[in-house]
Design a protein that fits this description.
about 160 residues, alpha+beta
Length: about 160
């Protein structure tokens, strides 16, 4: 069983194109969710991953498994009303990596960034760059599952 330790922020302004680099387009949908447990399907041109996430806040249980593309496509219709499209960019922050998500479709214009850590102490000690903007960690309305189901909570 894996643990994901992550902080999430609302990006006010993207870093330069050179810093941002290329991105990976992905579809992300939710097959099921109850309480603080969700089952997510993520499809890119390179792979498909089925994940179970449990818990709330900065530290959560996360178990991911790659699945064949045909099985992912067979499951995709079951995410109707619970999906989103985005492009994910990876930006180096010294030894860390910031995952910048640029959303499309109904969430067009939304920009978020997440950073994963090895420990909660590392996460707490992290001093985010100014471009990160307001922190969203622990705000249930800003999880990808909530965004996929209900859209932006600030609109």
């Amino acid at each position: 069983m894996g643990t994901e330790i992550e902080r999430k922020f609302l990006v006010d302004q993207l870093p330069s194109a050179d810093e941002l680099g290329g991105g990976v387009a992905m579809r992300q949908g939710y097959l099921a969710g109850e309480g603080d447990v969700e089952v997510r399907l993520r499809i890119t041109t390179a792979d498909a991953v089925l994940a179970v996430k449990a818990g709330r806040g900065m530290s959560r249980t996360e178990v991911e498994h790659g699945i064949p593309a045909d099985e992912a496509e067979a499951l995709w219709p079951h995410t109707a009303g619970r999906s989103l499209d985005k492009v994910r960019h990876r930006v180096a922050l010294g030894p860390l990596v910031a995952e910048v998500d640029v959303y499309a479709g109904p969430l067009d214009g939304l920009l978020t960034v997440e950073v994963e850590f090895d420990s909660e102490a590392d996460a707490i000690a992290f001093d985010p760059p100014e471009w990160f903007g307001r922190e969203l960690t622990g705000d249930g309305g800003w999880t990808n599952a909530a965004l996929a189901r209900r859209g932006r909570p600030d609109r």
